[in-house]
Amino acid sequence: MQGQPRSVAGRTEKTATPFGRSHSLDFLRGLAIVGVIAIHVSQSFPSNIRAVDFAFMCGWTGVNVFYFVSAMTMCLMWTQRTETNPTRKFYIRRFLRIAPLFWLAIPLYLLVNGTGPSTNAPNGIGPLQVILTATFLHGFWPDSVNSVVPGDWSIAAEMTFYLLFPLLITAFGARRPLYLALAIALHLVNVCLFKPFAFALFSAYYGPGNEAFVWNALHISFLNQLPVFLVGCALFFALRDGFAKSDAGILAAFVALSFIADRATGSHEFNYLMINLVLGALVAGCIRLAIRWSPIEALGRNSYSMYLSHFAVIYGLRQVWPLANGLVSLLIAYAVTAALSYLVARATWHLVERRAQDLTHRLTSPTSGRSAIGPNIAAAATGVS
What we know:
Number of strands: 0
Helix content: over 70%
Low-confidence stretches: 1-15, 368-382
Structural class: mainly alpha
Order of helices and strands: HHHHHHHHHHHHHHH
Strand content: under 5%
Distance between the termini: 25 Å
């Protein structure tokens, strides 16, 4: 990518970056959805082979890969577009990218799963949970997370990050130490102050026997996920501008402080941090090496719809599945789930997402000229978890 340097905060362009093509980002999204489908298929169709089921369960890391890719994609879009009213147009693009399909998923899963008590909603689903979910505020109340739409905790985190992103990048620009410093500060606030306080508060609110539910809700809360996004932003600028010794020093301090805080509070978030840092390194490696594979990239380009739909596909398969649990059943169920979810994604692209994209274009293009971002990058920027 080429362009003239600009002085706007966060928008200084370079003559060459490792993000010049969309393939690596699509490849990473594809890997992420492969992992996410793996964990949920294994929960419904276990192989009963410990090593295999454990390998499939590790697919939960796919959501965190989505977070890294999302943060890097947002930075890419922001630094490469030239337009008036960028913040307003950013919100329009993100809202219309996420909301239409998500709103369709709400009545679908209410019909499929009902409104009774469940693991994620001990007291059942009522108007509060539905309203919070529809307004993307469900990440802020424990029994609204994952209760209306399965896996919607990551959607809540994404939308909240989108809300904050223009403020962050305008304030911090390309100064990646600031992103890392904020990530450290928020991580320590979470494990030392917020999580212990919130655990006591919500455990008392939901009553005895719901401690595990509350602990999990706090683990997947936005405050616990935001450092991942912030590290993703720092990683983008490090890949674009080059890594420095100070980056390693800040990350080492992050690890040390997290270890100390974890031992002092028993928050059990240190391992989560370490896993995320390893995932960040793998994401950076894929981008630096420009790794690509067309079949995985195709999944990546349709990953959002696949993410929302694969829960329903698994539910439907479970109702008619003729095979007993085992390795063969697991592998076949995985292949069928991935294939059907992809077909649903292609259908929703034509029926919903393409129309939303057209509306986005009409709402954002009249006063922007045309953005400086290339068509391949624009395509990459549409994918989310």
